Amino acid sequence: MRTYIIRRLLLFIPTLLILSMLVFFTVRLLPGDLVDILTAETQFGVSSEEEKERLRAMMGLDVPAHVAYVRWISGILLHGTLGQSLQRGNAPVEGKILTRVPVTLELGAAALIIGLVIALPVGIYSAVRQDSAGDYAGRSVAIFGLATPNFWLGLMVLIFPGNWWGWAPPLRLYPFSEDPLAHIGMFVVPGLILGTGLSAATMRMTRTMMLEVLRQDYVRTAWAKGLRERLVVVRHALKNAFIPVVTLIGLQLPILVGGSVIIETLFNLPGLGSQLIQALSNRDYPMVSGINLFFATFILVNNLLIDLLYATLDPRIRYQ
């Protein structure tokens, strides 16, 4: 197991290197840069090409992309820094990321918890009570969740309850130390919206795998012994059916992180997703590259943890 983990960690290096190159050079294909955006604002008062070049030199935008990449990756490898943001204040990118990571992680955790609380019981019940009214209701809800985009559902929650009942979800994030209930309440609605897609896919997978396991001979033997339904489902069926479900959940976690980009913007959450949108709008290349590198690292670590969890769920799996 230790050898396997070390080998996977070593593979992170070339993977992250290739991803960093793709992100770094792709974002520079966008038309214009920060200087063009600033000079387009009348209050900045810069119009000549000489002034623009002077600003680009001040911001380090006057060098070719490959030179800028070498400087950026050298800063990561030699100094552990992701560079300086091009926005006012020139704050370190890693500092801004660290201040916004907790919000994104809280939103992802809320979506994951809500999605699993909905999906697992409904999926298990639908399998145990196949073709019942509850089964049809659960499958209908799952199809609705799969067919409904998160951003559309978020817009509907923001628009219609306010027009009909004068209610709107909270759009200000209170610090946990200041008001714990208000802080947690800020993540309930966006977490429910993000968790809808996760719960739908997980519900269908749980139902499918439970139906397959419940038809196995050892489960029939457990029924024939007269064991209680709860014992058969929980002890004999659920654990074996849960391995593909864990795989699906692991694949969904990056989607939750990616989905936070839109949901954080809609609900005014100061997380990495909203920061990424702002950085793209302002052509803040170091910030965009740093956030995407963080997301890539998160996905790689997540995949490794999911693979290691397989060995816990199924003792037959051995990593060499």
Report on the biggest sheet: none
Provide mean pLDDT, rounded.
80
The number of helical segments is 13
Helix-and-strand structural type = mainly alpha
Keywords for this entry:
320 residues, 13 helices, mainly alpha
Describe this structure in words.
This protein has helices at 2-27, 34-39, 49-59, 65-79, 93-128, 133-147, 150-165, 180-185, 188-214, 217-224, 229-266, 272-281, 285-313. The chain is mostly helical.
Outline:
The chain has 320 residues and is mainly α. The chain is 76% helix and 0% strand.
Write the topology of this structure:
Layout: H1 2-27, H2 34-39, H3 49-59, H4 65-79, H5 93-128, H6 133-147, H7 150-165, H8 180-185, H9 188-214, H10 217-224, H11 229-266, H12 272-281, H13 285-313
Helix pairs in contact: 1-4, 1-13, 5-6, 5-9, 5-11, 6-9, 7-11, 9-11, 10-11, 11-12, 11-13, 12-13
